[in-house]
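Hey, can you fold this one?
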Amino acid sequence: MKALVYNGPGQRSWREVPNPVIQDPEDAIVRVDAVTICGTDLHILKGDVPTVDRGRILGHEAVGTILEVGPAVRGVAPGDRVLVSCISSCGRCEYCRESRYGQCLGGGGWILGHLIDGTQAEQVRVPFADRSVYRLPDGVSNESALLLADILPTAFEVGTLAGRVGPGDTVVIVGAGPIGLAAITTCRLFSPSSIIVVDSAPARQKAALDHGADLVFGPDVDVVAAVKELTGGLGANVAIEAVGVPETFELCTQVIRPGGRVANVGVHGAPVTLHLEELWIKDITITTGLVGTSSTPRLLAMLAAGRLPMPGLITHRFGLDEMQDAYDVFSRAGETGALKVALFSDESKDLEA
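Sure. Predicted structure:
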């Protein structure tokens, strides 16, 4: 089969590799019907994630069809159409028993495209299949389901829920990439009074408004002053960091009111200064985290019921064998306007017209 292989910082190749095989009784082999590229994959290619070995097949988000299962798998069978989650779960360790699957101690967590070969391939081996893939309802398309592999549960759990967004809150989301846009959608489930999005790119500012943001601020706005003016001098109740650079994290700590919450979602590849000399007195809560995907079944049910509108999030579509072109477009999002790219195999039977 062919797969996208990481060859060291700045180097990748789409080439022939051996087909995956069952290695454990709880494994499943999945034919990849639809896959996407994550900002984390770009971080890996920059060398920001040194735990990824050279020769690793990248990718941790996919929709596919079960080809084979190990003898211990009971919940799915060959022929089932499934969502492949970005997080795998042994289901037995202390963290899994707390539904904190991202911290799995039993060989799971974020392993696909990180510690084991991932989903940007024609086939993928998924460990702990009964707890790491989800059968898809007939009415949910491959393209829509793809958003539940990582983006939506990450924005929901690490952003909206960790930030404890509530009715009447003022929420500032810094970054209008895929995670930031998904955060808008999931924050709206809790009826905040205002969602303010900060991003420098006009195309992403428009996307934020399309997804339900009330206001967007660009680089020409003094964001801290504007947020304080809109909130009677108080600041935001919740700030969600969805970029992963020092400047955006610091902005989140500056717009928040005393007693507010900063939820960091972005993947940081460089140190960030935490100004405790200013923050210690403000009763501020700062959270970080890796998605656990415990919310995936709930989000899947909402998606099937039409309760998770994500208009225009996937902006570019490719064939699976156009992986290199997809990476080129996604990595130059400022020029191409890409938000999320999706790649489909020749065998994919997507349900969307």
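The CA atoms of residues 155 and 183 lie 5 Å apart. Let me know if you want another pass with a different chain boundary.
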